[in-house]
Amino acid sequence: MKIVIVGTGYVGLVTGVCFAEVGVDTVCVDIDKDKIDKLKKGLSPIYEPGLDELITKNLEKGRISFDTDLANVIDGAEMVFIAVGTPPDEDGSADLKYVLDVAHSIGCYMNDYLVVVTKSTVPVGTAQKVKEAISYELDKRGVDIEFDVASNPEFLKEGDAINDFMRPDRIVIGVESDRAQEIFQRLYKPFTLNGHPLIFMDIPSAEMTKYAANAMLATRISFMNDIANLCEILGADVNMVRLGIGSDPRIGNKFLYPGIGFGGSCFPKDVKALIKSGLENQYPLRLLQAVENINEDQKSILVKKLIKFYNGDISDKKIVLWGLSFKPNTDDMREAPSLVIIDKLLEKNAKVIAYDPVSIDEAKRRLGDKIEYANDMYEPLNDADALLLVTEWTEFRLPDWDLVKKLMKTPLVLDGRNIYDAREMKQKGFFYYCIGVRTY
């Protein structure tokens, strides 16, 4: 079985490599020649645990290949997956330009029946637009070729994407024909042998499912952050509250960790797109608007605590950040809280030095020389006025606190992920602040 995946970003590359791993003849296409040249050599453009090894392995086995031209590889394929970016427009809506460009290209080059699948996260109604774009090109060519469109949204967690794809909680597929459904059943059979369910539905429902899932998770995060801030005011401990409510099976304990807000390529963008979709249909999504507002405020909470500690003036203070990526095990800094924190610190004329195990190159690309960068976690602490824990990388979990205190000018730690113990930190002589716990 041969498939083509257009787009070698996070979703497209993980999808392609995992299909190749189970024996599917997979071709990944991208117009970025430099990226394709590197992939042909087994070099991944993104950081994702286990991905490099799978690329190399499947290249050697001949199960995956890379190309810059869809016309070169579309013949013989049964399916084409569209996995290009859908960046937010200025108004928050998803920009479908790249998705529809691919659809037009498919219509130009296809010569036999295809199932055309939107893998990108797209608003309800996108599959119909894809169908119209393909039909337009087929009509221009004067040919009558059957095809189906489908929606197969991804539910991958950055940092654990390979495991998520190979052992999915569920596989959601929107189809409109039995023929397309049968092809999906063949494609996903290796993933359903262990009981992972295929859930078939109509296409609009599949498109909505992706947005609704991310919006629900984002809502839980913002809810917990709102509760955390109130806990701190009232003298309650949000960590205890989280345990108390999370033990209720109707609630569960997932995505109930307070912190400095969500980031990444999915939650912020998808919440914005769903809000915009509601407005376009005269149905304001009031809850999601609150979720977004809470999240934007939460990204600044560490800086507010820091400024309060220093009585409103942090100019010329040396502030160290541990972590830059929006979460551990990725170099992704899209919508990362660290970017907001850095902007706020620079506005107050603070001196910022940051360390992250994998995101330094990405930070340099985004920030240039606006801040300084360290090569290890202890290097920047010499004479530091504050340490901000921004991303909960494993190597930050059990630092040498005696060394940290010896190096710092002021032993001030602001923990944006609640990974340290307040009593222990105070015993060691630190000024310690976290989220949702009144420490002073």
* Total strand segments: 14
Shape designation: elongated
Note the beta-strand portion.
5-15%
Q: What's the CATH superfamily of the largest domain, by name?
A: NAD(P)-binding Rossmann-like Domain
CATH class of the largest domain: Alpha Beta
Overall radius of gyration: 24 Å
- For the record, give the distance between the C-alpha atoms at the N and C termini, rounded to a whole number: 63 Å
Helix content: 40-55%
Strand order of the largest sheet: 3-2-1-4-5-6
Q: What number is the mean pLDDT?
A: 95
Unreliable stretches: none
- Overall structural class, as computed from helix and strand content, comes to alpha/beta
CATH level 3 topology of the largest domain:
Rossmann fold
Q: How many individual domains?
A: 3
Number of H- or I-type helical stretches: 17
Please describe what this structure looks like:
It is a single chain. By secondary structure, this protein is an alpha/beta fold. The chain has 3 domains: 2-201, Rossmann fold; 211-297, N-(1-d-carboxylethyl)-l-norvaline Dehydrogenase, domain 2, CATH 1.10.1040.10; 299-433, Rossmann fold, CATH 3.40.50. Helices cover 44% and strands 13% of the residues. It has 17 helices and 14 strands. The strands form 3 sheets. A 6-stranded parallel β-sheet has the order 3-2-1-4-5-6, sandwiched between helices. It starts with a strand and ends in a 7-residue tail after the last strand. The model has no long low-confidence stretch (mean pLDDT 95).
